[in-house]
Structure formats: C-alpha cells, structure tokens
Amino acid sequence: MTIPDFQSVMLPVLKVVSSGEVMNKNDVVEQVSEAFRLSPEQRAELLPSGKQTVIKNRIGWAMTYLKKAGLVSSPKRAHIQVTDLGRQVLAQHPEKINVRFLKQYESFRQFHTAKPAQKATSESAQTDDLPETPDEQLQQAYQSLNASLAEELLESVKQVSPQAFEQLVVDLMLAMGYGGARMEAGQATQLTGDDGIDGIINEDKLGLDSIYLQAKRWENTVHRPEIDKFIGSLTRQGASKGVFITTSGFSDGALASVKNGLNLSVVLVDGQQLAELMIEHNLGVNIKETYQVKTLDSDYFDGFIG
Questions:
Q1: Residue ranges per structural domain of the chain
Q2: CA atoms of 124 and 130, how far apart (whole Å)
Q3: Domain spanning 1-104: which CATH class is it, in words?
Q4: What would be the CATH architecture of the domain defined by 152-281?
Q5: How far lies 255's CA from each of 215, 223, 260, in Å?
Q6: pLDDT tens digits, 220-257
Q7: What is the pLDDT of residues 187-204, one digit of tens each?
Q8: What is the pTM (predicted TM-score) of this model?
Q9: φ, ψ dihedrals at 15, nearest 5°
Q10: Cα(235)–Cα(58) distance, rounded to whole angstroms?
Q11: Taking each helix axis from N to C terminus, what angle separates 134-158 and 271-280, rounded to the nearest 10 degrees?
Q12: What are phi and psi of 246, to 5 degrees?
C-alpha cells in the first residue's frame, strides 16, 4: 500500500480520537499509520526538505482541516480531541471525509476559500474545479500556510502568563523597529502600580518620545471602557502615543473611541493582527523552508541577438 494522501486519512484520524480523550498528535500519527499498515520504510519516508516525514505531514494537514471544520479541537499544544460535531459526523457512518465533505461547514468554507484583498467573484468562480496557474497555486498555498501558522501562534500566545505576554508585546514593538536597534529601548512595567501601562518603548535614548503599551491576554471582546481607561492613563502620563494589544478583539465602540478627535495617537491591535505582525517580524516563529521561484532572464538572451 502506498502512503495515503491527506484527504484519505481524515476519516481514520476522526475515528482514532472518537473516544473523546485528549490525544497527543504523535500518538494519532502512530495509530493511523497502523491502520494503513504502513511499513517502517514508508513511515520513515521524508519530504523533499528532509525535515518531516510524509505521513506525519499529511496527517497534520488532515488534523488542521478537521479542526477548521469544527470536527476536532486542540485543547492544548500538540494535542487533539473530537468535538460534539465530530461525534455527530461519526454517528452518520460516512464512507469518507474529504474537502468536498468538509465544505458543508461554514467555518471550513471561510478558511478554504479565504484570499486576502479578494475581489468579489461569482460563486462559480470559487469551485474546486477552478483552473489556476502554478503561480496562483503557490501564492494560495503560502497564504494557507500563514493562516494556519497565525492560528497556531495565537493559541500559543494565549497560553503564556500575563507577565510573559507583556514582555512579548515589548519584544514585538522592538522587532518592528520602534526604539531603533537598542534592546534596552523597551521595558515591561511592574505588575502593580503601573496605572494601566504594561510596557514603554523609548524611541530615543533620552526617552523624550515614548510609546506606552497595554497588553490584554483575553478571550473576551475588549469594550470601550477599557480603552477609555487606557486613554486616561496616557493622559496622566503626559503621553502622546499608545498601543493597546489584545489576543481577542475589539467592539465597535472600542474602535470608535480612538477616532474621536483625541489629542493623542492610540492604535488598537487585535489577536489576528498580533499574530500576523509576529509572523512578519519573525517573533516566535522560524523559517521552515525557503523556495526560489525563478523566471527567464530575457536580457541575458538578448545579448546573443544581433
């Protein structure tokens, strides 16, 4: 038997976790490999990069797709658990689970068809059979990888302590270039008596121009009263710049509160933007692969003409 593709392992993965126990992903890989009776050589076969086995990569993507559809969850890092919806699917005894099957779920459709800055298109242009150039496929694959990484990254951020999150926010501001190249330009404040200020970035050596930070490692939406408190803290500090960063999101009232003719500049960063900024500035992530896409150098060949 050949190594199954990632869609072929979706149903076996769901069956392996059907007991409801929280399972380590490596154990799931092992049990699915057993179910397909893969040989030791097949289990050890590596991707071209040489950094991960083929079967682990494919099962990993199957888990991601099942999670996007809401059939499994990840209660903690590197672990997986079936959801109530996943149990309902198993009770229907489907012959197989694949991308077409998962598209019945709205959360999966949003994930699978999401394209940044996408122009409005007819529904027919979003079908699975839409022919795309290799360049487009590569770009979409890159976007899907980053979207998956952003979700995984945000989940990891939510698991750190409040103190560690405050330091993470300072590290991100420094990674983005605020404060220049001086690592001492940023600091997290004390846990108490900080007047709602969790970090400070000094944009010059003398601290004449500073950015004040507030970091909220929250699950619930941040509403306007929290922003008003932050603005009050900035005012008492005599600050002109503030950044409020959360792992959750902001209500419409919170977003509107920073646009009402303030004499200071306040920027709100939600969890999705936080993860994207961390990826962009290589904070908490590593480069997994580097691909060079080459094109014809017509100037070189033009030199032979003539």
A1: 1-104, 152-281
A2: 8
A3: mainly alpha
A4: 3-Layer(aba) Sandwich (3.40)
A5: 16, 9, 10
A6: 999 999 999 999 999 998 889 999 999 999 999 999 99
A7: 766 544 567 799 999 887
A8: 0.69
A9: -70, -35
A10: 53
A11: 120
A12: -135, 155
